[in-house]
Amino acid sequence: MSYNIDNIINIQTRIVPSGLGFANFATAMLFAPEAELPAGFDVDTYREYNSVADMATDGFSTTSETYLAASRWLGGIPATRTLKVWGVDSTDATVTDTLNKARNALWWYWSFFTATVYADITATTGDVELIAAWHETDGESFFMNCQTGASATEIRDPNDTDDIATRLTTLGYRRTHTATHATDAYEGTALAKWYAAVNYSATNSTITGEYKKLNGVAAEDLTASESGAMRQDTKNASWYGTVELKGSTDQGRVINTRTHSTYGEWLDDVVNLDAFINALKVELYNTIANTTTKIPQTPQGQKLLIAVAERVCERYIQNRYLGPRVYIDPDDGVEKEVPGYVILTQPEDILTISDSDRDDRKAAPIQIRIFRAGAVHVVDVTVDVY
User: What is the pTM of this model?
Assistant: First the structure.
C-alpha cells in the first residue's frame, strides 16, 4: 500500500458559519379580519402571498377589504414581492393581543390593517392609538396609519384639535405616519412601497417619501386651509395632491411625509435609522460569532470592532443616509467638518474597562456620532436684479 499523503500534509477544513443576515425592511404584515378569511385559513396563523391573484386563488374575495388593502402593496410601481397576511382572531380583547401573537410568531417591518380598523379612532378605546402605542413600545416595526372619509376631513380642519393625527402627535409616536385621502383607504400603503424597495447595500439608494408618485391613487385638489392644517406641527399628516404653478399642474405627489415623532423626524429618518442600527448589530455579532479563534480584550481586538463599525458607517455614506456636516463638537467646543460620522472610541479604551466588564467579556463601549444627509424638499431663491 502506498504511503498516505495525509501523514505528510494534514489539512484541516474550517467552515465559517454564515451568521445573521440583515433584516428585510420590505417585510410587511396585513392583519385580516376573521370574517374575511378563506376556508382553511386558521386564525392566529399567517400565509405569504406573491400577488393578489394568489390571494384570490386561495379564496379571498376580490371585493374584501383584505384583498383591496393587499392590492396596494402587491400591485403597481415600485414592485414588491411578498405580503404576509395574519388571520385575526375575532375574540381577541384590544388589538394589541393580535399584535403580540404575531410578534411571537415572526418579525415584520410594515404593519397594515383593513379600513374598519383604521376607522376605529375613538380617544378612549380606538384601535389606532393602541396600534401606534404598541409599535412605539415594540420598537421593531412601523405603522402606516391610513385615514380616509370623515377622519381625513377632521385632520384637514385647522380648528379641529381632537383628530387622530393631533392625538398621535401629542403622544410623540415616531413609529407611526398618518396618510390621508378623502376616498382611498390604503393610500399610505402605496407610499410605504417606496421604502420597501430600498437596497441599503447599493450606492445612492436611500430615498425621501416626499413628492413620490403613487400608482392607482387619485390625486386630490385640496384647499390651502386643508393642506396647511396637515402641515401644522400639531398634526403632521401627509396627502397625495397636486402642485400648481400658473395653470400648470403636476398631478399626484405625496406631500408632508412626517411622522408623529416628538423629535420632528420624517418617515425616512426613522426607517433609515432602523436599517442602520440593524446593520451595526448584524456586522458586530457576525464578527464576534464567526471568528474562528476569539477577539481578545486588547487594543487589537477593540480595533477590529471599531473597524467593523466604521465599515457600516461608510456603507451608509455610500447609500446617502449619512453625509458631511460641519458641527460644534460638544466635547471641546471646536467647529469640525465630518464625513458623516465620528467614532469616538479608541482601541486603547479597552485597557481601562472595569474588572466586572472584563469578567463579563465585554468590549469597551463603541461611541458613534452619525450625521444624516437628509433630503432637500424646499428651495429658497433670492434674485438680485441690477
Answer: 0.93
- pLDDT tens digits, 271-318: 999 999 999 999 999 999 999 899 999 999 999 999 999 999 999 999
SS3 call for 59: coil
162 CB contacts (<8 Å, ≥6 apart)?
123, 154
pLDDT category at 166 given cuts 50, 70, 90 is very high
Maximum CA pair distance of the chain?
A: 100
Location of C-alpha cell 446617502: 320
Q: Which residues are bridge partners to 181 per DSSP?
A: 148
**Contact between 163 and 235 (Cβ < 8 Å):** yes
Q: Residue 309 has which C-alpha cell?
A: 463599525
Cα 112 to chain centroid, rounded: 13
The three state secondary structure string of 222-282 is CCHHHHHHHHCCCCCEEEEEEEEECCEEEEEEEECCECCCCCCCEHHHHHHHHHHHHHHHH
* Among candidate residues 169, 175, 32, 55, the one with its CA nearest the CA of residue 112: 32
Are 236 and 227 contacting, i.e. CB atoms less than 8 angstroms apart? no
DSSP codes joined into one string, 183-212 = S-TTHHHHHHHHHHT--TTSTT-----TT-
